[in-house]
Amino acid sequence: MLNSLDIAKEPSQTRVVVAMSGGVDSSVVAAMMQREGYDVIGITLQLYDHGAAVHRKGACCAGQDIHDARRVAEMLGIPHYVLDYESRFREAVIDNFADSYLAGETPIPCVECNRSIKFRDLLATAQELGADVLATGHYVASRALPDGGRALYRALDPSRDQSYFLYATTPEQLAMLRFPLAEQEKSETRALARELGLVVAEKADSQDICFVPNGNYADVIAKLKPHAAEPGDIVHLDGRVLGRHEGIIHYTVGQRRGLGIAVGEPLFVVALDADRGRVIVGPREALATRKIILRDVNWLGEVPLSRIGEAGIEICARVRSTRAPGPAILRMKDGAAEVELLVAEDGVSPGQACVFYESDDPRARVLGGGTIATRVGAPRLDLIGAEPARRIGAV
């Protein structure tokens, strides 16, 4: 007889470590597990300090969030531990985030945090504590497969689905992970928090990357890497130099606003030339992408990735967390994963994720994904402006 976590034990004999961030979602998970009679332990990670990371005073992860998690654990009567992962987080997530931006990419630190910190280091700690499972407040589903493994699926609430950020979860990690909020909407989670009398029931959701609380990525990177904000040229695809910028870290592919140039036509950032410190702009049609090459692919499908070959398989691919999955073909060519988007996408940027789904169904299975390395057909940066620079207004 399996319990609600698919473990063949009585709940009282099943140890559940809950990753408690201090927010409403993870707090409700801890309360749900405790109410069902599981042996619950709460763990909160101290990942960063705003003072050290962005040189500003005020709230930090070691402050209010940890305090809130501790208050919830005390109310529930469960053990609660705070682990200092600050140095690990700095090396694995923040430094990689800054380096990726300096390379002209648009990284997703939440993916790396899940891959390197929560589902690797924290999972190992949970195992050391004798846990049967590690439960989190993510909105994503994990279901048992006939062969005894587990698969990842989109959550019930499409507005909260976090499968895009969890594609890098491995089969081995999935075996121990549980996501109790998968089958409920956010409004239900809030209602349950109120019903249980949790002190965080009305706490606002975090909208920004945790170590970038004001949404200003460039400011954080400039403080971590003082040489990062080096000025350079804003160059049109046709080679014209249209103006100057204060550092490529201030721009992302697909950006239109805030370019600081006026040439009588709508222009978008189509590429970031990190080697030459240039921002390349052009018309919207230059953003259209149909093929991308991926790196660091994580595969969760049943057919081995090595057997897919150049013929490829049909999937649905998602290249932005805010966009719906679209029809695509996944191929393996010369050891690299290539995704052909059957409907062109704008604003595809290196450093972002391309996540694979079995279909476009709202509850579709996640087949994995990878980091976008290059856009096939993207403009050759070394050829742009190869002739002597032509500046607007020059004779």
UniProtKB/TrEMBL annotation:
Q: Which reaction does it catalyse?
A: S-sulfanyl-L-cysteinyl-[protein] + uridine(34) in tRNA + AH2 + ATP = 2-thiouridine(34) in tRNA + L-cysteinyl-[protein] + A + AMP + diphosphate + H(+)
Cystine bridges: C113-C210
Q: Where in the cell is it found?
A: Cytoplasm
Region called Interaction with tRNA, residue ranges = 160-162
Annotated tRNA-specific 2-thiouridylase MnmA-like central domain ranges read 229-282
The first-level EC class reads transferase
Question: Pfam families, from UniProt?
Answer: tRNA_Me_trans (PF03054), tRNA_Me_trans_C (PF20258), tRNA_Me_trans_M (PF20259)
Under SUPFAM superfamilies, the record lists: Adenine nucleotide alpha hydrolases-like
**GO biological process, alphabetically ordered:** tRNA wobble position uridine thiolation
List, alphabetically, the Gene3D superfamilies matched.
Answer: Adenine nucleotide alpha hydrolases-like domains, HUPs, Translation factors
> Where is the catalytic site?
C113, C210
List the residue(s) that the UniProt entry marks as the site Interaction with tRNA. H138, Q352
Task: Look up the EC number in the record and give it.
Answer: 2.8.1.13
Q: Which GO terms describe its cellular component?
A: cytoplasm
Could you tell me which residue ranges the tRNA-specific 2-thiouridylase MnmA-like C-terminal domain spans?
290-372
Q: Does the keyword ATP-binding apply?
A: yes
What InterPro entries does the record tag this protein with?
MnmA-like, MnmA-like_C, MnmA-like_central, MnmA-like_central_sf, Rossmann-like_a/b/a_fold
- Report the domain of life of the source organism: Bacteria
Which residues make up the binding site for ATP?
A19, M20, S21, G22, G23, V24, D25, S26, L45, G137
NCBIfam families for the chain: PRK00143.1 (NF001138), trmU (TIGR00420)
The record's listing under PANTHER family reads:
MITOCHONDRIAL TRNA-SPECIFIC 2-THIOURIDYLASE 1, TRNA 5-METHYLAMINOMETHYL-2-THIOURIDYLATE -METHYLTRANSFERASE
The UniProt similarity line reads: Belongs to the MnmA/TRMU family.
Question: What this chain does, per the record?
Answer: Catalyzes the 2-thiolation of uridine at the wobble position (U34) of tRNA, leading to the formation of s(2)U34.
Q: What is this protein called?
A: tRNA-specific 2-thiouridylase MnmA
| Organism per entry | Saliniramus fredricksonii
